[in-house]
Amino acid sequence: MQCLVIWAHPDPSSYNASLCEAAVAALRSQGHQVTLLDLYREGFDPVLSPAEKASYLPRTADNIAALQPHVDALKRAEALIVVYPTWMYGPPAILKGWLDRVMLPGVAFNVGAGPHRPITGCLDHIRCFVGITTSGAPWWWLRVVGDPGRSLFMRGLRPLFAKRCQSRWLQLHGMNHQTPTARQRFLQRVHDTLAKLN
């Protein structure tokens, strides 16, 4: 498959970097083609500018052209994998900005036909999605507050993908208190999960 991996963490020596490396290695070991977008190293600008907002619907082609390599990578993808730390209950601003600026009308979705009609997805070529994240909060607290990060990807974006898209969510909770053994075990889980994608 053509796999698009989006990584969003500022520290290239972090545990999160190890998770990204494990995911990419597992995918490549199975012969998948991997495009890695390292948003921090690339210096991706997450800010939707006033000009972009003004052209968002009436001149979407302008916004697409400004980010053509990212749009092309998304359009090629058969599998989408996001790797990031959970900060303040969601993805880092750089990843949320990538979603805002790249998942454009006509690329990721079509606007609903009326005020009570939802958007419809355009990413039916994406048949696998995997979210990989860490969080300082324990699992039960995230459930109490509605698990917004997981909901964004697994409930909000999932309808944009293929109807029978395989979706997996891998999260290491209580990150600040995990032992080296537990971290290694989660790394192995990430590797094993990605190695089984088809």
Brief summary:
This protein has 198 residues and is an alpha/beta fold. The protein contains 9 helices and 7 strands; from the N terminus they run E-H-E-H-H-H-H-E-H-E-E-E-H-H-E-H. Helices cover 42% and strands 19% of the residues.
Ordered list of secondary-structure elements with their pairings:
Blueprint: E1 2-7, H1 15-29, E2 33-38, H2 39-42, H3 50-55, H4 60-66, H5 68-76, E3 79-85, H6 93-102, E4 109-110, E5 120-121, E6 128-134, H7 139-144, H8 148-157, E7 166-172, H9 180-195
Parallel strand pairs: 1-2, 1-3, 3-6, 6-7
Antiparallel strand pairs: 4-5
Low-confidence stretches: none
Tally of strands: 7
Class by helix and strand content? alpha/beta
**Mean pLDDT, as a whole number?**
96
- What proportion of the residues form beta strands (DSSP E)? 15-25%
Helix count, DSSP H or I runs of 4 or more residues: 9
What composes the largest sheet? Answer: 5 strands, parallel
The termini sit apart by: 7 Å
Report Rg: 17 Å
Query: Secondary-structure element sequence?
Result: EHEHHHHEHEEEHHEH
User: Which term fits the overall shape?
Assistant: globular
Helix content: 40-55%
Order of strands in the sheet with the most strands? 2-1-3-6-7
Structure description:
The protein is 42% helix and 19% strand. It has 9 helices and 7 strands; from the N terminus they run E-H-E-H-H-H-H-E-H-E-E-E-H-H-E-H. It has helices at residues 15-29, 39-42, 50-55, 60-66, 68-76, 93-102, 139-144, 148-157, 180-195; strands spanning 2-7, 33-38, 79-85, 109-110, 120-121, 128-134, 166-172. The protein has a 5-stranded parallel sheet, with helices on both faces. Strands 4-5 form a two-stranded antiparallel ribbon. Strand 1 (2-7), helix 1 and strand 2 (33-38) form a beta-alpha-beta unit. Helix 1 (15-29) runs parallel beside helix 9. The radius of gyration is 17 Å and the shape is globular. The model has no long low-confidence stretch (mean pLDDT 96).
